[in-house]
């Protein structure tokens, strides 16, 4: 694997670890989710452009669109939690209330 | 070449002069009402000349003035049909209107908007003339709607009173239902005979005329207050007495009958529609006569009397005698208008008292009004050789000797005797006995306007029947020979009604009043028809539409079926089956460790 690929892959891994290990704010995992999406986008664009795989050049853009939707969903969940507790500390989500 | 058409057009167009003077602001004068009255008298005299020419020579004219537009193959123009019906009706209507205008100079004397009142009455007269002389259905419809609008404006004259507003709205609504029938007939004629001109329709003589004639019958039901669309006529008594005298006794309510008379060439070929008309008229005349028996407002009794006589006219059309119905229209105008004017005189003299239980003893206090009231009632019931006799007796004779529905005939005869009953009731309560009004009275009938107008109609009520019957040319041949009991039927039932009513009134005059019986309540509350029909159908309509549109479509189909049901279901099941406690960091960490371990194993294993 070339250096560039390793670089982007490392960025993805760092974001993944940041998504799964965080202290208290839900917001930080959402941010890491965005970072994962960004690195995936760059990786996909690079590979497609380098191999001149024109038919697949739609894929990164569609990935972007779906990532936007998922970010909106994540933010709405954040807002729901914040409405109830005022802060988005994860340790508040210990009661499954409806 | 004679002056027939010019004089008739002149007589009709002078009526529009006072309306146009409102441009010059002369209508703010205090002499404007006198001008209007004078112009109507001049129009009457001018219209007598063409009528006499018509009677002498039988010359009918159609004046087609101005071509308005042509829509593909339909030609609309301004055309006047001056035939038997319009030539005789126009002088009668102008005469009665002249007397009513003079009467309202006395009655509405203290009203601050008297000039506007006269302008409204004049506009009504013009639209009525348009209706009567129309040669095509479009012009007739213009007149038809015009009289409806003026009726609305005049009934609601004292618009501060909620009852008056309700009554005016009621008149418009019931008339509108009739207009649906009119427009249906117009559409049918347009489709099937390609015209709205009466001549072409009669010439083409279409075969299946059930639908348009039903439409015209519905229109007549609405405008002439037949059973089913009748409650607006008694409610219309909220308007001033001149309005009741002009609109709701002589002119507007006969517009429906006039329409059916105009279409008699089509109706004489359609037996079904004739039977329908006959039964409708018979129901109306009996029902309204029953309702009139127990009313206490003098104007309402006379209004129901009008409705009953209109039913009689419809019965006459139903036995295929349009010319007799027309004769009854003309004679009825005289005595009915006079009855209303007498009641107006009584009401004003007793300081706006309309309840007959609070009148009495006017026989000596108001001799002139008494005379004309009694003569009007006698003419109404068909006393021999007064005005009503010439039309009403002929109608009853013809109905008796024709091949017709026996039930309808029986209803009509009963209604004729009831006419005598309620007329006797009015006379007994208003005129005879001891006075039941307050001692401080303002009884005054010395005004020349009042006396002259009633006097003119009085002479008309006595002589007009004889005069008109002897001067018109013969149309349908009346039945000449019949058994003596049939000849005397009308007279017998009338005398029976008189005697019965008089006996009952005298016997029960001093008895203790009891609780009303069921029949009394039926008659007094107008057969419960307004009570039921004004509340139940609107409630049913509105609640059904609310339930179907708002509840069914919006709430259930758009909201509840998918979105709300899904969210409800999800919440319930997730509460039911989840065992999580929300330890998110633990879950994420375990995920990460699993991932790392699997990566390591996968990579380091050969």
Automatic annotation (TrEMBL), chain A:
Domain of life: Eukaryota
Gene Ontology MF, one: NADH dehydrogenase (ubiquinone) activity
InterPro entries (alphabetical): NADH_UbQ_OxRdtase_chain4L/K (IPR001133), NUOK/Mnh_C1-like (IPR039428)
Membrane topology recorded in Swiss-Prot or TrEMBL: Multi-pass membrane protein
Transmembrane segments: 6-22, 29-49, 61-81
Gene3D superfamilies referenced in this protein's UniProt entry, alphabetically: 1.10.287.3510
Entry keywords, A to Z: Electron transport, Membrane, Mitochondrion, Mitochondrion inner membrane, NAD, Respiratory chain, Translocase, Transmembrane, Transmembrane helix, Transport, Ubiquinone
Compartments where found: Mitochondrion inner membrane
Its job: Core subunit of the mitochondrial membrane respiratory chain NADH dehydrogenase (Complex I) which catalyzes electron transfer from NADH through the respiratory chain, using ubiquinone as an electron acceptor. Part of the enzyme membrane arm which is embedded in the lipid bilayer and involved in proton translocation.
Assembly description: Core subunit of respiratory chain NADH dehydrogenase (Complex I) which is composed of 45 different subunits.
Protein name per Swiss-Prot or TrEMBL: NADH-ubiquinone oxidoreductase chain 4L
Organism: Equus asinus (Donkey)
Lineage: Eukaryota, Metazoa, Chordata, Craniata, Vertebrata
Gene: ND4L
TrEMBL record, chain B:
Domain NADH:quinone oxidoreductase/Mrp antiporter transmembrane: 134-418
Bilayer topology term: Multi-pass membrane protein
GO biological process: ATP synthesis coupled electron transport; electron transport coupled proton transport
Gene Ontology CC annotations of this record: mitochondrial inner membrane
Domain NADH-Ubiquinone oxidoreductase (complex I) chain 5 N-terminal: residue ranges: 68-118
UniProt keywords, alphabetically: Electron transport, Membrane, Mitochondrion, Mitochondrion inner membrane, NAD, Respiratory chain, Signal, Translocase, Transmembrane, Transmembrane helix, Transport, Ubiquinone
Cellular compartment(s): Mitochondrion inner membrane
E.C. number: 7.1.1.2
Secretion signal, residue range per the UniProt entry: 1-18
Enzymatic reactions: a ubiquinone + NADH + 5 H(+)(in) = a ubiquinol + NAD(+) + 4 H(+)(out)
Pfam families the UniProt entry points to: NADH5_C, Proton_antipo_M, Proton_antipo_N
Annotated GO MF terms: NADH dehydrogenase (ubiquinone) activity; NADH dehydrogenase activity
First-tier enzyme category under EC: translocase
Domain NADH dehydrogenase subunit 5 C-terminal: 422-602
Transmembrane segments: 84-105, 117-134, 140-160, 172-191, 211-233, 245-263, 275-294, 301-319, 325-350, 362-386, 406-432, 453-472, 484-502, 586-604
Main function: Core subunit of the mitochondrial membrane respiratory chain NADH dehydrogenase (Complex I) which catalyzes electron transfer from NADH through the respiratory chain, using ubiquinone as an electron acceptor. Essential for the catalytic activity and assembly of complex I.
Family as reported in the entry's similarity comment: Belongs to the complex I subunit 5 family.
Name of this chain's protein: NADH-ubiquinone oxidoreductase chain 5
